[in-house]
Amino acid sequence: MKVMKALPEIRLETARPTLDARPLEKRVGLIALATDHTSEVDFRRMVASERIGVYVARIPYANPTTPENLRKMQPSLSAGAALILPDETLDAVCYSCTSASVVIGDAEIEAAIQAAKPGVPVVTPPMAGMRGLNAFGVKRISILTPYTVETSRPMAAYFGAHGFDIQSFTCLGFEDDREMARIRPASLIEMARKVTHPQADALFVSCTALRAALAVPGMEDAIGRPVVTSNQASAWNCLRLCGDETPRPEFGRLWTKPLAQ
């Protein structure tokens, strides 16, 4: 029979250690879909640092990617935001779904998130994409999405309503965001070359599921014009809101630009 040694006396130290105001200087909240393979990875690579923390909550989502299913996420946004560092302030919150953002609406998403986090700056991928395109001063664009035609229509309406002249719009017909995440970045480079209209001044590649941020430099080399993607623009927008203006051209031309509203 094994004999237990006597436990040591536990002493309470009365001198309190010095506390920092925050564990990290800046805080970015990320609301991701339950099925998302890509947003957390991209934000960890592009946003997180010793100065900036990325804090993630996931909300329910079920495929297929249709306007009806996308709209069903709206009631979960407040609860998702509330789970990110409860009762603590954030410097930005990104809702990481491009197609749902255009279906639900930027203002509605902002209201739902700010119900849990009053006053926090809210970023959506189409909003960040629009700001990214504005940073280049372009209006004539091509758009590439992985969605069906039905799910792509609200995207076309969104950018058209914000004054962009859509020279071409191409979709790939995928219905499952988990399959969208499996599209090879190299394939996106070839697709960018194929779908960018000769008269377009930039290409917007939609969808936070796509690993498009990895392909931005290759796409820009292929078409000779700026490329803005959902996660690349969202991460850039969040960093700029945190006061980080560091040029990082390895993430594309956009990352050399200041934030344009």
Helix-strand blueprint:
Blueprint: E1 26-33, H1 39-46, E2 52-59, H2 67-71, H3 77-82, E3 92-95, H4 98-104, H5 106-116, E4 122-123, H6 125-136, E5 140-145, H7 149-161, E6 165-171, H8 177-180, H9 185-195, E7 202-205, H10 216-223, E8 227-229, H11 230-241
Parallel strand pairs: 1-2, 1-3, 3-4, 5-6, 5-7, 7-8
Structure description:
Helix 1 links the parallel strand 1 and strand 2. The chain has 261 residues and is of the alpha/beta class. It has 2 domains: 112 residues, Rossmann fold (3-Layer(aba) Sandwich), CATH 3.40.50; 104 residues, 3-Layer(aba) Sandwich (Rossmann fold). The N and C termini lie far apart (72 Å). The strands form 2 sheets. The protein has a 4-stranded parallel β-sheet with strand order 2-1-3-4, with helices on both faces. The model has no long low-confidence stretch (mean pLDDT 97). The protein is elongated and about 80 Å long.
Biggest pleated sheet = 4 strands, parallel
Strand order of the largest sheet: 2-1-3-4
Q: Which bin fits the share of residues in helices? A: 25-40%
Q: What top-tier CATH class of the largest domain fits best? A: Alpha Beta
Q: Name the average pLDDT.
A: 97
How many beta-strand runs? 8
- Oligomer class: single chain
Count helical runs.
11
The succession of helices and strands, N to C, reads EHEHHEHHEHEHEHHEHEH
Low-confidence stretches: none
Distance between the termini: 72 Å
Annotated CATH topology of the largest domain: Rossmann fold
Which architecture of the largest domain per CATH? Answer: 3-Layer(aba) Sandwich
- What's the domain count? 2
Please report which band the strand proportion falls in: under 5%, 5-15%, 15-25%, 25-35%, 35-45% or over 45%. Answer: 15-25%
C-alpha-based Rg, rounded: 21 Å
**Shape type:** elongated
Q: Give me the secondary-structure category.
A: alpha/beta
